Amino acid sequence: MSAINVRRDVKDSFYRYKMPRLVAKVEGKGNGIKTVIPNMTDIARALSRPSSYPTKFFGCVLGAQTTCDDKNERYIVTGEHDAERLQTILDSFISKFVLCSSCQNPETDIIIKGNDIWMDCKACGARNMADMRHKLATYILKNPPAQAVKKQRRQHQELQDDDDMNGSDDDLITQRINKEAAGLKLESKLAQEGWSEDTSEAAVAQRMKELNVKSGSFGNGDDDDEEGENKYEQFGEWLEKEEAPSDEDIIAKAEELGVFGKYKSVQVLMQCIFDASVVAQIPKRTKLLRKFVKDDEKHQKAVLGGIERLVGNEYKDTLLKKMPNILMGLYEADIIGDDVFIKWGEKPSKRYVDKEVSKEIKKAAKPFLEWLENASEEEESD
Fold this sequence. Notes:
The protein is an alpha+beta fold. It has helices at residues 40-47, 52-62, 83-97, 135-142, 145-166, 170-181, 189-192, 201-211, 226-241, 247-257, 263-273, 278-281, 286-292, 297-314, 316-319, 323-332, 338-344, 355-364, 366-381; strands at 3-5, 18-20, 25-27, 34-36, 66-69, 74-78, 108-113, 116-121, 127-129. It has two domains: 3-192, Defensin A-like, CATH 3.30.30; 201-381, Alpha Horseshoe (Serine Threonine Protein Phosphatase 5, Tetratricopeptide repeat). The chain is 54% helix and 9% strand. The strands form three sheets. A four-stranded antiparallel β-sheet has the order 3-4-6-5, covered by helices on one side. A three-stranded antiparallel β-sheet has the order 7-8-9. It has a two-stranded antiparallel ribbon with strand order 1-2. Strand 8 and strand 9 form a beta hairpin.
């Protein structure tokens, strides 16, 4: 089995970080066809990650069911998938959940703090947040490495007891102990219940409900028909699945679905293209926002509504205290008018989030709103 660089973009044959080349074996026929990855355990060990993490990542990207049988070291993705395609997806997993974003070194450990996933680099000492927008982030939060280790030890002991009773040779036991020492972690209860990225109509509806872009989230409007709502759901689902889409790609998709220029598409956009790093991301997306957000109150309020959902429903612990910075970023980008900001901050609303959450958000935004009101009064005086 050939070894390749963990970072395949590095062509140096003396690059110290290696992993096995992914092997894919297609089994079954018709609706029962599936792709088995027989060396997933070895790959995961090289990356210092549980085998379930990259397996579930494949399911997220491909929209396929996955099965993780750690006891038998059998990892499956439903459907027929060739090794090169899976290897390319694995590159994306490595980029998002293994490499240090500061030094691009794979010597990182996953640390869970609150509702955030951090990658602690042993090479340069940096600690950077993982991509919290990706569906795998939810899985990792519910299945942190520490819990997986405890379960692995328990299951390993069960396996060892069974092997002792059945007279299995010592080599197998030694092999499993060595793998445990290497940091491999077994699947959690959620995975055993069949967690996956299902693409059925019901599953898509549930994911969009979690994203808060279902029809009931928008309120009434001039483009509020059922067919239109499905288009917004499709737009949100596409944004969630795409990896770093360009401004041109996003606009093209919105035009294709017929939602470009609609205020509801603005709310979906705000929730999907930003994450916990929204303060730094706004300047990079200013041109895109200016194309989506028309010069009217409805569109600009949709921007603030999307921010309320992003902060209140997804990154409250991280972003609540950064509300003044977020609003200042939108102000400096000239996306929202002064009067819209001030009107939005006058009282909490349950239009986008729970009323109590809205109250917290607008309280956190008070320093910016007071500054804006004073600046407006001075301008009028001049």
